[in-house]
Amino acid sequence: MNKDNSAPAFPSDSNEFGSVLGMSLRDYFAAKALQGYLANAWQAETLDSLGESAAQQMETVAEISYAMADAMLAARSA
Description:
Elements: H1 25-39, H2 41-49, H3 54-77
Helix pairs in contact: 1-3
C-alpha cells in the first residue's frame, strides 16, 4: 500500500469546480489515534519520563499516531 495515496477519508463527487478529496484516510486515522493518545494522562507521564525535549516528544507521538494509522489500514485489508 502506498501510504501517501490512501483513499480519501470523506470522498465526494466532483462538481463544476473540480474535486476536493480532503485528507487521506491515513491522516484521518492518525488524527484519531493522536487524539486518543493525548487524552490519556498516563501516556503524557510516560513521555515525560523519557527525558526528551518537547519537540522530541511531539515527534514521538506523531510517529506513534501514524504507526497506529498504518496498523488500522492494514487491518482493513486483512
